Amino acid sequence: MSLPDDNEVLLRVASTTSSSSLAATISHAVYDGKRVWLRAIGAGAVNQSVKALAIACGFVGSRGYSLSFRPSFETVKLADGSPTAINIRVIAER
Description:
Blueprint: E1 8-13, H1 19-31, E2 35-40, H2 43-61, E3 66-75, E4 84-93
Parallel strand pairs: 1-2
Antiparallel strand pairs: 2-4, 3-4
């Protein structure tokens, strides 16, 4: 996955990421018209991602947006190996 322009945001999620803070970040990116991607490696990070997406749906819903999500897999090259990440594309519609 490559992010070709300044209109896309990649948010890397860890198991220690605050789901409410992540939800706020997702919401503000949606309000700014950005295309949002989440990248999570590991069960805890995926859990925080899903919780944040559920919270973000409530945040943006009050402003007339509806969020949907498209997950995909990607092998990420890191210094200590090549784990498989789950990338979640956030799709906002009015």
